[in-house]
Amino acid sequence: MSTAWALVTGCAVVTFAIKAAGPIALGGRALPAWFASIVALMPSALLAALVATHSLANGDRLEVGPVTAGVLVSALVMRRTGSIAWCVISAAVTTAVIRAL
């Protein structure tokens, strides 16, 4: 087996173990209310962290650039119109125009 397949198999086993740990540990009991409220907020926090690091990161340092401006314009358009299509288009156009300048 090659190194790549060993890595894929190892990741699959670890993922399975992590996913199985919850039901095994809880044994059919419900989560406490305080913990369930935290778990419900985790996807939003993760998405915000990914967007922030992607829009501000440039290799090994943080900087404000064309992508950051595109994300800002995209957020403003989303707030005003609620249209995902216009949000994506405005972000792409803003980023392209700033890079061309």
Index terms:
4 helices; 2 domains; flat; 2 strands; 101 residues; two-stranded antiparallel sheet
Per-chain topology:
Layout lengths: L2 H24 L6 H24 E2 L2 E2 L3 H16 L2 H17 L1
Antiparallel strand pairs: 1-2
Walk me through the structure.
The protein has 101 residues and is mainly alpha-helical. The chain folds into two domains: 1-30; 43-100, no CATH class. Helices cover 80% and strands 4% of the residues. It has helices spanning 3-26, 33-56, 66-81, 84-100, and strands spanning 57-58, 61-62. Strands 1-2 form a two-stranded antiparallel ribbon. Strand 1 and strand 2 form a beta hairpin.
Could you provide a short overview of the structure?
80% of the residues lie in helices and 4% in strands. The chain has helices at 3-26, 33-56, 66-81, 84-100; strands at residues 57-58, 61-62. Helix 3 runs antiparallel to helix 4.
User: How widely separated are the two ends?
Assistant: 50 Å
Structural class: mainly alpha
- The total count of strands amounts to 2
**How many distinct helices?**
4
CA gyration radius, whole angstroms: 20 Å
Helix content: over 70%
In total, the number of domains comes to 2
Tell me the overall shape. Answer: flat
Largest sheet: 2 strands, antiparallel
Strand order of the largest sheet: 1-2
| Beta-strand residue percentage | under 5%
